[in-house]
Amino acid sequence: MTSGIEEQLIKIRKDSEEREAKREAEAAGIQYLNLENFPVSLGALKLLSKEEAILAEAAVVTQKDQDVAIVLRNKKKLETQTLIKKLESLGFKLTFFQVSKSGFEKLLNDYDKIKELDKKITGRIDVKRETILELAHKLKGVTLVKQEMEKFSFDDQTVADFLELLMAGALANDVSDIHLEPYEKSVRVRYRLDGDLFDLWSNYPLDHYRAFLTRVKLLAGVKLDLGSRAQDGRFSVGMGDRDVELRVAISPTSFGETVVIRLLDPKVVDLDLLNLGFREDDLEIVDQELKKPYGLILNTGPTGSGKTTTLYACLKRKNSSEVKIITIEDPVEYRLAGIEQTQVDDASGYTFANGLRSILRQDPDVILVGEVRDEETANIALQAALTGHLVFSTVHANAAVGAIARLTNLKVKSLSIGPALNLVIGQRLVKKLCERCKEVVDIRGGEMALRLKEIVDRLPSRVNRGGVTYDKIYHAKGCAGCDFKGYRGGVALVELFLLEKEIVQLIELEVPESNLFEAARRLGMVTMQEDGVIKVLKGITTLEEVENATGTLKK
Questions:
Q1: For labelling alongside 120, which of 26, 71, 388, 396 has CA 20 to 30 A away?
Q2: What pLDDT sits at residue 115?
Q3: Tell me, what DSSP letter sits at residue 111?
Q4: Mode of pairing for the β-strands spanning 390-395 and 366-369
């Protein structure tokens, strides 16, 4: 224990150091600051690493948007000057304070709290539910978000206000991605809604954007001064009753760093397969395959076709206290209760292949592998499916039948594919017609009606034709409720390639893909295009959307 005399001596020494720091401040022409009881902002402190702070004998102690307070020991020190230039290049406005040696040394101890800060403060922003609901009601419609953004006052409103507006507008309109793209004189802000990009603002000032970028980088946990390389991070928005995770991708461009923020709203994974667009007769087949204790279920489709959501919906149908489910993803998109989720990390060697090996040692019943992208992962996944595990994954193929060729290209033996593979789901995402404004197009007795009827008539008897008529289809008109686009939301076009005995035999014989397709059609497979035609006739989407996704209608 420190004696009373020792305490007095320490106090005398500190007082002396503070007086000396005050004299140094006067000589340098800057303000003096006693750090003894000063409330240092850990968020501001994180602007610089501990190593940088030690070298420069300087640190940031407060931050409000781009205005920061920096404490230092010697402003003229070379390392300090380098650090000052770095902060100024990031758009910060600096106010300097001279501090004592002991005060600065004590400040360095605060860096030990930053790891906890990452969990509790950075990486998350909390918005009152009432605020979000108020803004969401006010901003229902992307056009209204655009109008509000153009009225934004840079004199009276902060970066935090702009971020709140951006997020509230996105959440109110079920936006999937937010794009911020810098150009020579300004920044373009866009929402991706129902697959299309919508311009919000083309004149977002570059100065304000730099402050916004710094804020997002801090929240996402990426490096502030690394502007020449792509970076990825995450943060969340807490809204009282739920958290929305945001995945941030930052990339360098000619005029600065572009930001794409993907919104991962947990309500998306509350959807079931029926709501995603699976017909009831197809759903019966999927449920039949989900009941099997082992085997491989693959999903094919382009980026943005809803593959991840479909696989999560399948996992939800399997999830119970009696079943152990483990995933390996790149990255983890949505958090699922009761399911162990892991993420690949190539830098540490945790690849799909290595991760899958590790997972198999943990005695799972169900495994989800984000993507089969190489020979090693493909063979391990098939082996897992053959040895008592139900495995879900995705492959890149244009159609469900094309998954077989993809696996053989990955040097999977054809004799292994048939016994291991249960089902391949092929899907495309198309826009749903706005129910408020969709417009009837009379096709009664016309050539189009005959073509559509021919397509439906050749479908297997299991397909429910209820609600299908041949006298009308619908046109996308546009109204305020859908931002005058005519569409609101999306729906999947689906095809199921079931590995029946005849199909397995053909795979073992290594027949061409066309032969597999013909056999699958004969055995009752409904193609994505045919599924689309049913949805057109039921008034769910348009023929234009179906043909954009699947090609011109086949005769």
A1: 71
A2: 52
A3: G
A4: parallel
Alpha helices in 387-527 (DSSP H): 402-409, 414-420, 447-457, 501-508, 513-522
Alpha-carbon distance 107 to 36, whole Å? 9
Phi/psi-derived region of residue 510, left when phi > 0, alpha when psi is between -120 and 50, beta in every other case: left
Give the pLDDT confidence score for residue 1 in this predicted structure: 47
Q: Would you identify the CATH topology of the domain 124-264? A: Beta-Lactamase (3.30.450)
DSSP letter, residue 448: H
Rounded to whole angstroms, the Cα distance separating 56 from 75 reads: 9
Burial code of 13-41, b = ≥16 C-beta within 10 A, e = fewer?
Answer: ebeebbeebbebbeeeebebbebeeeebb
Furthest-apart CA atoms within the chain: distance in Å:
105
Thinking of the domain 268-550, which architecture would CATH place it in?
3-Layer(aba) Sandwich (3.40)
Please state the domain extents for the chain: 4-120, 124-264, 268-550
Check: CB of residue 296 under 8 Å from CB of residue 391.
yes
> In angstroms, what CA-CA distances link 134 with 129, 130, 138, 481?
8, 6, 6, 18
> 353 CB contacts (<8 Å, ≥6 apart)?
374, 376, 377, 380
- Tell me whether residue 12 is exposed, middle or buried, using C-beta atoms within 10 angstroms of its C-beta: 0 to 12, 13 to 18, 19 or more: exposed
Q: How far apart are CA 539 and CA 529, in angstroms?
A: 15
Mean pLDDT by 10 residues, the chain (555 residues): 65 85 92 86 79 90 83 92 85 90 88 56 58 71 85 80 85 89 93 88 88 87 81 78 82 93 78 90 95 96 87 91 91 83 82 89 93 92 94 94 95 93 96 94 92 93 86 92 88 96 95 96 96 95 95 84
DSSP E strands, 405-484: 421-433, 439-442, 472-475
Count of positions (residues) in the chain: 555
Q: How far is CA 150 from CA 155, 192, 201, 365, in A?
A: 14, 18, 7, 53
The number of beta carbons lying within 10 Å of the beta carbon of residue 442 is 10
Among 170, 108, 117, 182, smallest CA distance to 142 is for 170
Give me the pLDDT at residue 542, please.
Answer: 96
Predicted local distance difference test score (pLDDT) of residue 131: 66
- In angstroms, the CA 482 to CA 436 distance is 8
Packing angle, helices 352-360 and 375-386, rounded to 10: 20
Question: Rounded to whole angstroms, how far apart are CA atoms 83 and 52?
Answer: 8
Whole-angstrom distance between the N-terminal and C-terminal Cα of the chain? Answer: 92
Question: Do 268-550 and 4-120 have the same topology in CATH?
Answer: no
Phi (first) and psi of residue 304, to 5 degrees? 85, 10
User: What is the SS3 assignment for 499?
Assistant: coil
Q: Quick check: 184 and 165 in contact, CB under 8 A?
A: no
* CATH tag, 4-120: 3.30.300.160
| Helix or strand (DSSP H, E) at 318 | helix 307-318
Q: What is the pLDDT of residue 520?
A: 96
- For residue 120, the model assigns a pLDDT of 40
